[in-house]
Design goal:
Layout (H helix, E strand, L loop, with lengths): L53 H12 L4 H11 L10 H7 L8 H4 L7
The structure holds iron/sulfur cluster.
Length: 116
């Protein structure tokens, strides 16, 4: 199946183009329903997740928090591990989420709950 390329969270130069043929993408139909569509893509690609850009991260996560496809987006991001905010998480948070529960510290045991 061949599909037109689409970008999530929104069209922009830093985003990896995904097509329906992308073996890692699986079903990407959810992308067209993201709450981030139409927002400035730069919001989802902070240069850092702490310090002066912490507010930017919070703003991006707030958009994800009201997104109906947050869980799909997070699953996709956990598999593909792109840079930026996806599914209400930073890349660093997604890396931590991939650590097996038995290896996580007590503080990490619960893990983030980015999608409502
Ligand atoms: S979870 Fe966030 S990044 Fe993913 S589609 Fe929704 S608004 Fe966009």
């Amino acid at each position: 199946m061949s599909g037109a390329p689409s970008a999530v969270p929104a069209p922009g130069s830093q985003l990896r183009l995904v097509t329906a043929d992308d073996a890692r993408a699986g079903s990407v139909g959810w992308m067209t329903r993201g709450a981030c569509r139409g927002t400035d893509p730069e919001l989802f690609f902070p240069i850092a997740v702490t310090g002066a850009t912490a507010g930017q991260v919070s703003s991006a996560k707030a958009v994800c928090g009201r997104c109906e496809v947050c869980a799909d987006c997070l699953s996709y991001a956990l598999e593909t591990m792109p840079h930026g905010i996806w599914g209400g998480t930073t890349r660093e948070e997604r890396i931590a989420m991939r650590v097996p529960p038995a290896v996580r510290s007590a503080a990490q045991a619960e893990g983030p709950r980015p999608c409502a």
